[in-house]
Amino acid sequence: MINLLWLLLLIYQRKLVSLPAAKANTHYEVDGVKPTLKYSYGYPQQIIIQKDSVIEIVENDKKVITRYQKDDEILSLEEYNHISFENYGKYYDDDEDELAYPDLDTEFQCRKELEKLKEFNPVYDIIVGERKVFEYAIVGSAEKTGSKFIHNPLAFGKGTFTNANFYKVDLYGITCDELVDYCKKNNLTYKNEHKDTVKFACIDHANGKYVIYDLPKGLYADDCRYTTTLEEAKQTEEDQRVLIRKILDAKLKIVKTIDSTSANEILGIINYALSYLSTVRPMKSSEASFDSGLKKVNEAKEKILTYIHEV
């Protein structure tokens, strides 16, 4: 139990942040660790971090030549470049794109020095990149959405949406759920032989016809909608459910003919009639008929009460 509480606390301390693409030769680090980021079409990458995490922009380390060495003999970078220039660079003709020594003796001596220079190997040092703290903005946090069909990235334990909107409403899941619930409430059954769509779902009372094929959105497994607020996500789910019920009511003609207000009015009339009937003392010749009529009125009262309870 303690471990579960600790895990929940840890999850709810996590935040969603948005990172723009890093500049050339730089990268992000979160608490000293380089995250895996995949950018697409210029959208910022969203990632999950701890509430108090530090994000830094870090220049990539550089591998540079700092000197040249042959056994125990070392030439500084400046010395190496000077020898190279004196024996090669200053005799190079840029216009002709070739070496132009003034005479053979000079060329011989220069090439001899250059051969010696080739015996020196470069020695590299790593220059550690500069680090700067990145001031990030939190764009989301862990929360309960109140519906198994409404998700945000933190519900999955990772930032998966490249869109700035971070509530995902599973319209397909809502459609399937509403179909099952509708059939259960109305004592109906439906069948669907397709795994990734309910477009061809059939209900027994519809003579085998497809009942939901004309639903604008929510017929296929990948049908969803993204919203920026939880309130908008909840309204999207409710709108989807209302639309499905309207379509099914129209297709199956399962429409209640009286509402709860009308039912209560009818109940009031029945109770009023029963109060009057309770004062009547029928003659012996009509007593049986009176009892039968009273029984039917009471049956009507029970049916109305049952209807009001269901509504």
Primary descriptors:
alpha+beta, rod-shaped, 3-stranded antiparallel beta sheet
Description:
With about 300 residues, the protein is of the alpha+beta class. It folds into 4 domains: about 1-60 and about 130-140, no CATH class; about 60-125, no CATH class; about 170-250, no CATH class; about 260-310. About 40% of the residues lie in helices and about 20% in strands. The protein is built from 7 helices and 16 strands. The protein has helices at about 1-10, 75-85, 105-120, 170-185, 230-250, 260-275, 285-310; strands at about 15-20, 25-30, 45-50, 55-60, 60-70, 75, 90-95, 100, 120-125, 130-135, 140, 150, 165-170, 190, 200-205, 225. It has a 3-stranded antiparallel sheet. Helix 2 (about 75-85) runs antiparallel to helix 3 (about 105-120) and helix 6 packs antiparallel against helix 7 (about 285-310). Residues about 1-10 and about 155-165 have low confidence and may be disordered.
